[in-house]
Amino acid sequence: MIKLFRNIRQTHLVQGKTSIYLKYAIGEIVLVVIGILIALQINDWNDSRIQKQKESVYLKNFNRDLKDQLASIEFQIAYETKIRNVATPIVVYYKKHQGFQIDSLFSASIGILVGRKTFVKKAPTYSELISSGHIDIISNPILKDNIINYYQELERIELVINKNNNLYVDAVFIPEMIRLTEMQVANKTVLGNLNQTPLDSLMIDLNESGLKQITRQQLAIPENELRMINAVNYRNRISMIHFAILTNQKEKTQQLLDKLISHD
To answer: With a threshold of 0.90, does the pTM exceed it?
Structure first.
């Protein structure tokens, strides 16, 4: 088409028809501009299509991550529930009898309470988009804000749970239990057998009645008894807090999953 305009323009120029020449020259320019605009529009459509495809992949990955996170939250909730179920009877018994029932169940309960579970956020897709600066690939601004808010809250929860574990369970509760119960005997044995036998199995190497007697003697001291009930009660409260925030986050996880499904 442009070649045709050029030939006609040159013919009119040779014939001295300047005005007609100018008209055809302008027409040629208009055609070039229109061609460029069409090419740009096609390029924009293609870029938009590629972006939509990438967004779809990321949203599917978010869906996968959230399902993994949901399973992780449910597992953590089950663990915190176990801690509560173990600690609560000890607290209830103490309030009712103003003392502890030192038996095998008590020892087993203390063994469970000194454990803790690290909570880990599962956010590979979100971390990738944030680190690369491509979070804006999520075209729906409301959905994007929901995703950002969710993972910011999840990061806060991870920090809270793991700080509680480190600052209380590891640094306070475990040393307190070692000092107040027969675990102190087993712990001394562990120090000399770190590469041989775990704590739980080492405890059976000693006479069970002797172990219980150690705990009874320790807790016969009013100050130690008070330290024990305060430690167990606070351990229970920490699990209750964890349970509450995790249950709330579980609901938010399911809500975000539902939004991702409806967005598709």
So the answer is: no
